[in-house]
Amino acid sequence: MDQLKLLPDVIVFEILDRIKENVDKISFVLTAKRYWMLRRFLRFTVPSVLEDDEQMLIHQIFNVKSHLRSFEDQRQRASSYIHYVTGRDLNKKETTNPTFGTNYTHVILHNARKEQIYCNSLPECCVHLNVGHHYNIPFDQGIFKNNRRIQSITFGYYFNRPLHVLNLPVNLTYLQLGASFNQRIAPNTLPTTLKTLIFKDYHSKLDFPFEIGSLPASLTTLKLASYSHPIEVGILPFGLKNLVFSDNFNHPLTGSILPPGLTTLKLGYSFQCQVDLPQSLTRLSLEQSFGSIPTIPSTLRKLSVSGDINTSLTNYCHLIDTLTIYMEQFDHQKLSCFKRLSKLYLYNVELLDSSLDFIVPPTVKVLSIEDGIVGYRIILPPSLEKLTINDPSVLKYQSLPSTVYCFKYYGKGIFDFSKLPTTVQHLSFSCEHWQHIRFTPNIKRISSRIALIRSSMKFQEEQR
After folding, report:
1. What is the Cα–Cα distance from 105 to 102, expressed in whole angstroms?
2. Distances from the Cα of 301 to the Cαs of 94, 357, 367, 392, in angstroms?
3. What's the domain range around 18?
4. Among 149, 184, 139, 199, which Cα is nearest to 170's?
């Protein structure tokens, strides 16, 4: 943190200029008193962010993007993160060998385009390295000799280099590759300590199929954002636990292709082939109608499907405790087969028969209804503890059960929060409803967005 305070103003201004989120800009200046004095020079991405209308101010700040971080989270992370912008120093000279402090566990390199990361560029305590979107050259050969603590490396969009020339640390456990990566992964190239391998972008250009030995035996999590090649027996490591396929993967997964210890499997929209599920599977996600799987393992507990539930699944409903359904028409009468269901998530679901009440199974404790099921009579169970909705009509025919202690409302329509039972202790809602909330002593925790709103209002008052 002390080293961060010594950054020249030109570097500080460069950092602030490249931060896209308005809230993150404010969070950055909260990390040190010196930066707080520079707050008058902040340039926000929304022209109307400094309007006098307080409500419009809040609306503009918190709706630029949906993913916002809280001030408290940023202050906690500021002591262990360093964001370095490569480029020119105060004397307008190219600098590729920055000096970091000794207390940073996370290093994020922004705008690292042509500069090579040299062996003395990273602090010895660095554990997580993010080289940014533009970096596309190998590491210096000795960069990891002095640093054996690095466990995680994340490459950005444009990185496309053979992995065998990267000189990856021997104790690496996490590796993420971006959309432009399109290289053959030769056998025994990746470190034998690697546990997580992620091909992040769904527009990935990976055209090389995996070979036997391409994936280390230590791998437990594999996420393939874009992979369309067949998987042969022996390709996937024996100890793999979590496997996510891309939407364009459509090849059989029969026999012993899938590891016997696999616990999580996700198949994309294009998958229509036969699959033999291992008996260890506990979580299954299908982005298409259920129908190509002959047998459900008795260990399955979490199921996610797009479309209606196939009739053949009703024989296994007693196994499922968490069910997620996306889109298309859904026969809600089939929910009566789920005898141990405790969590139900519905996204953009349409009911096949609107004349029938939508009766939520009596065992459900967590219910989320986002889009769809508008205007239907919904019967909530007395066991309900957590409820998330974005349409007030969900509670048109029934009040909130007194057992609910966590309530989330992210809709645009006006919701009468005064009708919430006194048992509600955790409350979360979108920022446009904050002025309608009357906080009562029973509310123990509110959404972090409220803290953001209050902090931003205070920030604007001090600026004026």
Report:
1. 9
2. 56, 26, 17, 31
3. 4-55
4. 149
Whose tokens are 């292709």? That residue is 257
**In percent, how much of the chain has pLDDT > 70?**
60
Backbone angles phi and psi of 287, in degrees to 5: -90, 35
SS3 category, 13: helix
What are the structure tokens assigned to 105, written together?
């566990």
Length reported for the chain: 464
What CA dihedral angle connects 159, 162, 165 and 166, to 10 degrees?
40
Is 221 inside any structural domain? Answer: no
d(CA 414, CA 416): 7
Q: Is residue 189, in this structure, part of any structural domain at all?
A: no
* 256 within a domain of the structure (yes/no): no
Average pLDDT over residues 381-407: 87
Please report whether residue 125 resides in a domain.
Answer: no
Query: Which residues fall within 8 angstroms of residue 430, CB to CB, at 6 or more apart?
Result: 409, 410, 411, 412, 449
pLDDT band of residue 292 (cuts 50, 70, 90) is: low
Cα–Cα distance for residue pair 253/269, rounded to 1 Å:
15
Q: What is the pTM of this model?
A: 0.72
Q: How confident is the model at residue 281 (pLDDT cuts 50, 70, 90)?
A: very high
pLDDT in tens, 448-457: 444 344 444 4
Q: Which of 369 and 3 is assigned the larger pLDDT?
A: 369
Rounded Cα distance between 407 and 209, Å, is 46
Query: Other C-beta atoms within 10 Å of 242: how many?
Result: 16
Provide the β-strand partners of residue 284. Answer: 265, 303
| Whether the Cβ atoms of residue 159 and residue 131 lie closer than 8 Å to each other | yes
DSSP string, 263-284: -EEEE-TT--S-B---TT--EE
Summarised one tens digit per residue, pLDDT across range 17-33 is 667 666 666 666 666 66
Q: How confident is the model at residue 336 (pLDDT cuts 50, 70, 90)?
A: confident
What's the one-letter identity of residue 144?
F
Q: Which is higher by pLDDT, 61 or 401?
A: 401
pLDDT digits (tens, 9 = 90+) for 71-108: 333 333 444 444 444 433 323 333 344 444 455 566 76
Token digits of residue 251: 């090849």
The DSSP output letter for 360 is -
Considering Cα of 231, then 232, then 237, then 240, what sign does the dihedral take? positive
CA distance 445 to 447: 7
At 425 the pLDDT is 87
Total domains in the chain come to 1
Both tokens of 433, joined, read: 């409803």
Give me the numbers of helices (H) and strands (E) for the chain, helices first please: 7, 23
